[in-house]
Each structure stands twice: as C-alpha cells, then as structure tokens.
Design a protein that fits this description.
The chain is mainly alpha-helical. The longest helix is centred in the N-terminal third of the chain and has 12 residues, at about 45-55. It contains six helices and no strands. Helix 4 packs across helix 6. The protein has helices at about 10-20, 45-55, 75-80, 105-115, 120-125, 140-150. Helix content is about 35%, strand content about 0%. The mean pLDDT is about 95.
Length: about 150
C-alpha cells in the first residue's frame, strides 16, 4: 500500500487502519506515497485516530480552547471537540499539537475516546502495578486500566 511499509512488521495493522480510514499516508511533499511507520505520532495525529476509531463525531464549536490551535489547521475540529467529550483538558492554554505524544498521553486519549473510564473496572482501580507510576500521577488509572486489560 505504501512504499515504506511493504517489509515492515506492522504492515498488516497499518493496512487495516488505512482500510478503516483511521490513518492515512502522506499525499504530498517529500513523503508522498509513504506512511513513515517508525516516525513518532504527534498529539494531533493520535487524537484524530482515536476520534475516528471510536466513532466520535467532531462538534462544531466556535469557542477555541487553545491558543496554539487555529481554525485553519486540519486537526482543529478534533482538538477543539475533545474537551467537550472530556478526552483532553481544555483548561490549559496550549495543546502542542505537533509534539510527539507520550505513552501516558496516548493511553488517556484512547481510554477517554472509547469511554473505558465508565467501565466499573476503571472506576475501582487502586494503586499501580508500575514502580515508575506514582499513585498521584494524572495518568495512573488509565495506564493501570490498560495493564489490567492486558494491553500494556
């Protein structure tokens, strides 16, 4: 499907996600026809993938939550809709859409996009199975939920 995924270990998953319109490759510029499977995803890219995969609809909203998100950007509707679904916190001044996303940020976006936080398992999470995840970390219940479910 892409010139750079033919021999990649993730090719089948990438092809499936493309087929479901969750991801797509580059259609212009120096990476035209490529997917860049080993390139880190940005915060905006992951948020868009989570929206599409979970079947969430973007909400037309004239209120802009973040100073670094302009209505002309391709990801505007996803980023601006996410606080309305409690997927991300809209009280911060900046979203940093082009920053690489951390595992903790990605897990939280996925958990909230699919409403896994409504699961009684999530609601009753206590402690942490990881020594590097503080009980006070904002992402602790999201990471722990994925651990309990065997995802991480």
């Amino acid at each position: 499907m892409f010139s750079d995924t033919a021999d990649h270990w993730g090719r089948e998953a990438i092809d499936l996600l493309v087929e479901k319109s969750i991801v797509k490759g580059y259609s212009s510029g120096p990476y035209e026809g490529m997917f860049l499977p080993d390139h880190p995803a940005t915060r905006a890219e992951l948020l868009k993938m989570a929206f599409v995969a979970s079947g969430r609809e973007t909400i037309t909203n004239t209120l802009s939550y973040f100073e670094d998100i302009d209505s002309e950007y391709w990801y505007y509707s996803y980023v601006n809709s996410a606080p309305l679904y409690d997927i991300i916190d809209g009280s911060k001044a900046y979203f940093y859409p082009n920053n690489s996303i951390t595992r903790a940020q990605a897990v939280k976006i996925i958990v909230e996009s699919f409403d896994f936080s409504d699961d009684p398992v999530f609601q009753n999470i206590m402690g942490s199975s990881f020594t590097d995840v503080s009980e006070f970390a904002w992402y602790r219940p999201h990471i722990e939920y994925f651990y309990i479910k065997g995802i991480v």
